[in-house]
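Fold this sequence, please.
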Amino acid sequence: MRRRFVLTMLAGAAAAVTAGWWRLRTALTARGRYEDVARWWIPGGEGRFVAVGPGPLPDELRALGERLRQEFRPMDSAVVMVFDDPEAARQVRKGSRIIGEEPFQAALRHQRAMYFKSRAKGEENFTIYDPYPCAREVIRY
């Protein structure tokens, strides 16, 4: 009985350490480059503004597209706008009517990618802009 208790405790501790290491590894790999700036709910899903840090590399953006695809898999619809500056994402979220058209367009130039999913339309893609608004790469799932 005592041996079973010790083995159970060791297995639980090992699982906790593994989970903690995985979270730390993920945080170190991301280097703090993913920031959830704002969210809103849409029918059957969610909209989001995120910032990924200055000058995201194309591979980082592709990895983010796959992460978003996995995250929104159970939802019917989703829109995620990806920026390289959190403040620019906040400004775009406020809208051109509030901040004015010029500041809005200036902030919008910081958009680096966009994820879109609509199960009703049968569409899911991740577009990487370089420079905004020109699409450099469109990944269709």
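Helices lie at 2-30, 58-71, 86-94, 96-99, 101-108. Residues 33-140 form one domain.
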